[in-house]
Amino acid sequence: MFKGNKEIVSVIIITKNEDQNIEDCLLSLLPEKNSYIYEVILVDSNSDDKTREIAGKYKEKLNLQILNIKESTHYNAGLSRSIGANAACGNLILFLDGDMVLKPEFLKKTIPLIDEKEVYGIIGLREDKVYSNGILIKTKKNTYGITHLRQAFHFGGALLISKEAYLSVNGYKTNLYANEEPELYIRLKKYQYKILETPVPMITHHDTYIDKISKVKSLFSKRSISIGQVVRTSLQEKTLLELLKHRFLSRNAIPIIFDFISLILLILAVFNVNFVFFVMIIQISMFIFLMMNNNLKNFIISKLLVIQSMVGFFVNKPVYYRVEVDDHNQFPHTP
């Protein structure tokens, strides 16, 4: 794919109040550690801490550009990554979050794999370090369980991808509240852009512990609307089959899709009581299916989220935002 050309990597880092992590992230990108890197573009979601101030110290060392989303109708990872990718000059893009540290050998070992295997992207081993009140409480060495070189089943916030493939599928969706990574994955898969996973260390991710109460509350946040958004997008992009095959998306989307159908049938039952029978068949079938796949909790969760998912399915508002370049030059965006 890149034979005869120099591989140039643009690193896109997205941040929101990452002053505790951003310096470690940027230090891992210094030229003596990663010679393939041509530029670093940091896209900040208007942090109110010292994230941009700390990053500014590395402008010359890293050929770093700082873009701040000063205003937006809503902030999300897909929007930030899209802004960064559109500004990138490299023929390869490495997406990172501000709380990630890149391993020094990753690019050196994986870019040749992309050349040899004629694939368009790659992910490696992810190590998660979880902190509570600044204290390390848990470490997971291989979050994705990668054991050998093969086609990836998914990817997260860290991804090395050719700009050609990224742009050809129109990149990240800017209006999704969450699930932007699996949504991009299923579009890449539809157009047969191979993304590999390899047991080469890629990143250390510094994460914050979330207690059970907060996890339950998050079910009812705006992020839960994204399941409906992704279902709608998959219908528009003709990727519904890929969605149903996706391990993570399917276990969340399938129960909600069938609950949505059941809800419509219950409304129709006002006019014809026989529709209740079809609702019972759908729900019993879904209960058995989820039980066989050890995913019975989603039988309840989908019912709690069906209304929010419907909102996500039907509401498709464009995103309006204003970006500051290096905190002084501004440009607005309208779709």
Tell me what you see in this structure.
The two termini are 32 Å apart. The protein folds into two domains: 9-210 and 319-333, Spore Coat Polysaccharide Biosynthesis Protein SpsA, Chain A (Alpha-Beta Complex), CATH 3.90.550; 215-314, no CATH class. The protein is 41% helix and 24% strand. Strands 1, 2, 3, 4, 5, 6, 7, 8, 9, 10, 11 and 12 form a twelve-stranded mixed β-sheet that branches. Helix 9 (226-237) crosses helix 13. The protein has helices at 22-27, 51-55, 59-62, 77-87, 106-117, 163-168, 180-190, 212-218, 226-237, 240-245, 247-268, 275-292, 297-314; strands at 9-15, 37-44, 64-72, 92-97, 100-102, 121-132, 135-140, 150-151, 159-162, 195-208, 321-325, 329-333. It has 13 helices and twelve strands. It is α/β, with parallel strands linked by helices and 335 residues long. Mean pLDDT is 89; it is low at 1-5 and 328-335.
Please describe the topology of this protein.
Elements: E1 9-15, H1 22-27, E2 37-44, H2 51-55, H3 59-62, E3 64-72, H4 77-87, E4 92-97, E5 100-102, H5 106-117, E6 121-132, E7 135-140, E8 150-151, E9 159-162, H6 163-168, H7 180-190, E10 195-208, H8 212-218, H9 226-237, H10 240-245, H11 247-268, H12 275-292, H13 297-314, E11 321-325, E12 329-333
Parallel strand pairs: 1-2, 1-4, 2-3, 6-10
Antiparallel strand pairs: 3-11, 4-9, 5-10, 6-7, 6-9, 8-10, 11-12
